[in-house]
Amino acid sequence: MISCELTAKEIMCIAASLGATELYGIPDGFSGISKSALNKELLKVQSSLEQKGYLKENFDGEASLSNDLLSIIAVCAKCEKFIVIDKHIKNRTQEGILFYVKGETTVKAVKNDDIYEMSIFDTSMIKSTLNELIEWKEPNYKDKTEFTLANKVLVKAKTLKARQAEEAAAKELRDCGVGAEAAKVVLSGLNGDEDFYSLTFANLLAQTDNIDNVMYIISNGKALRLKSAIEDEQDVVHFTTATYNGILNELKTMLEKLEVSGEVFK
Description:
Elements: E1 2-7, H1 8-17, H2 35-51, E2 55-57, E3 63-65, H3 67-77, E4 81-88, E5 95-102, E6 105-112, E7 115-122, H4 126-133, E8 146-150, H5 151-162, H6 166-174, H7 180-190, E9 195-203, E10 211-218, E11 223-231, E12 234-241, H8 244-258
Helix pairs in contact: 5-6, 6-7
């Protein structure tokens, strides 16, 4: 498997050399800086790439990037499908994981501070790679749960929880018909005290209905699936009970809708 480690600025510079003007999921560290500052930053990027062995000069003094590196960034710059996963496991640093899909080739980029650990592999491996990202905890409460909350209620409850007003926060949810255990899990999940996943799938080739998003809170108490919607002209979130098999099946369904190539579903 071909792999590399790059900063956001290094990725942007290489992508620009391939004709790209932006990259999904990668911040533009050069935005808004002066021309003189830009030149200095570009020299720093060049020096860094040379130190890493990605940029080399020939006998004529001409610099060129390694073919492996170019093959990775080319997939990102010209991707057709894009998957972004925010994964926050309790008591661990939040992970940002990006997948760039172009035909039968996929690049996975894992953000670690300002470094992106990037690897390229066959798209047929993407289903198993996604499944491995889910760290399941078997919940104590497996009874079916279903409720809908307005975003403004969630924001208020989250704010109260952050201010240590936990009982008041829980009451906001209970007043909307949420059970005590589910309210506890929702509040803990939204405040980073439970395992939380947000998965977004984007088909850049589709004209309509090209983005799918789903979220999960997984705890020892309950596991919940979260899906955003608009009802009566207000933003809401639907909550339902999540199961491990349900999550894997939903990932499979979202991949099928994304129409990724390769022997993914055999």
